[in-house]
Every structure is written in structure tokens, then in C-alpha cells.
Amino acid sequence: MIKNKARIYGVPDGCKSAFLYERIEGEAPRAWYGTLANYLLGNRFHKEKIDQTLFIKKQQRDILLVQVYVDDIIFGSTKKELCIEFEKLIKDKFQMSSMRELTFFLGLQVKQKEDGIFISRDKYVAEILRKFNLSDVKSANTPVD
Asked: Domain Reverse transcriptase Ty1/copia-type: where (predicted)?
């Protein structure tokens, strides 16, 4: 099951993120989400039942996933052309500050390579080590099964 999920995002260019030009505050996030949701639903996406911020579009054997988090969007597909179509669809309706390969999301670092997608918290760990003056401490390996 995990392999199949990873495969959806398996193309190195396949996962991207998009950011709106300005931060959304107050009641605006709900209104923006409603506008975005209606736009996606009107363009043959369907909303996931469990996660109402996940939108899915299926085209024959391919799938495009769009995850919305406040004013950030991440998306990926099994087919690069679906990502390109989605970029155009979004840019036609909304002004985006940037659309690029996903490298950081919700505090997680994301590295996309040919053999998979790797998620880490290296930046956070380094910050904690600095905070407690442990940056220069000698490290030790731990045994792995």
C-alpha cells in the first residue's frame, strides 16, 4: 500500500506547491477555500470524503491529487501532463506567487529523487540542537535491525 501511494508522487517533477500572493487572514480563508473548492469541483475534481481538503481527478488510469492547506496547495500526479494542465487551470483563475517543485511543507523537508520521495525534519533537529548548545556534540551511531 505504501508503494502505491509513493508511486503517485514518484515522478521527480510530479509534486509541486503553489502559494498565493498574500497571506489570508480572518474570514478570508474560508471564503477562499469555498471559491477554490467550487472551481475544482466544476473542473471534474471530486472532494475526498475523509479529508475535505483533498481533491482528486481521475483520467483513465492516471490520477491527480490536490491537497489544500489554508493558502498553500500541493499537487502531484501519475502523469506529468495532468500537473501541467492543473498549473494552467489554477493560473487562469488565481494569482499565484510561486509554483515550484515541493521541497518544504508544514515543517517537513521533502526531497524528490528517482527512487522515491524522502521526508525529513533535519532543519528542525538542527534548530533544536542549536537552541540547547548541542551542535558540536560528538554523535554516535545506533544499531539497526
From this structure: 27-144
State the DSSP H helix or E strand holding residue 110, giving kind and residue range, or none if neither: strand 108-113
Any bridge partners for residue 113, and if so which? 116
Range of the domain at 61: 2-101
CATH code, domain with 11: 3.30.310
Q: What is the per-residue pLDDT across 52-88, written as a single tens digit (0 to 9) for each?
A: 999 999 999 999 999 888 777 888 888 889 988 998 8
pLDDT tens digits, one per residue of 20-40: 444 445 566 677 788 889 999
